[in-house]
Write a structure and sequence with these properties.
Elements (H helix, E strand, L loop, with lengths): L6 E2 L1 H9 L7 E12 L2 H7 L4 E6 L4 E2 L1 H6 L3 E4 L9 H12 L32 E2 L2 E2 L9 H19 L1 H6 L4 H24 L1
Parallel strand pairs: 1-4, 2-3, 2-5
Antiparallel strand pairs: 6-7
Length: 199
């Protein structure tokens, strides 16, 4: 069409996909900035497929017939352009594989991570309980599992409100969550005022 840059021809892509054994259900995924944004929900959906075929672009892009007649889905890593589709493909592979049984030690650990419940993950701490004058929150040392669960949820709500309010806009909060968020924000405001007074 006379545009700038090289465009990948359809023949090699169609031939490569045709040469593969077919496993169903499958997806033939075109990695492109024009695609559906890669997120945790999409990774969960793709982890259920028996076969994923990833088509990585280079140069100016693909012949449109690859997009129209070969790919079953288009996926984007974000609102930016890279020199090729290999980095998005690696991100997609890593995100899918970690959801497969046997990849992580405890599958339960995946349920509390960022984006699984529409919230960012709560802060994590290890030993020692105090490091360079910075202490682990006392509730985490209390042994009170209900209080710890409440604190973690509050931290998730506050962190999401501060860093990704767009996620909260998509997730209606229960009255209890609204109260936890308000209390957590008020507590942080008080802590910030105390730090300013110390300075």
């Amino acid at each position: 069409g006379g545009g700038v840059g090289m465009v990948l021809k359809p023949e090699p892509f169609f031939a490569a996909v045709a040469s593969l054994p077919r496993l169903d259900p499958r997806e033939i995924i075109l990695l492109t900035p024009q695609g559906q944004p890669l997120n945790q929900a999409l990774l969960r959906e793709l982890a259920q497929k028996a076969q994923l075929i990833l088509l990585c672009g280079q140069y100016e892009g693909f012949d449109e017939r690859i997009r129209q007649y070969l790919a079953t889905r288009e996926v984007s890593l974000g609102d930016f352009v890279l020199t090729g589709g290999e980095i998005p493909a690696l991100a997609l592979i890593n995100g899918v594989v970690r959801l497969l049984p046997g990849t992580v030690g405890k599958m339960d650990s995946l349920r509390s991570e960022s984006f699984e419940t529409g919230l960012l993950e709560y802060p994590q701490y290890t030993r020692p309980p105090e490091f360079q004058g910075h202490k682990v929150p006392p509730v985490l040392l209390s042994g009170d599992h209900r209080a710890i669960a409440r604190w973690r949820l509050q931290q998730q709500l506050v962190r999401t409100w501060q860093r990704r309010p767009d996620l909260l806009a998509k997730r209606p909060l229960t009255p209890e969550e609204q109260q936890l968020l308000a209390e957590g924000l008020a507590e942080q405001h008080t802590d910030a005022e105390e730090q300013d007074q110390c300075l």
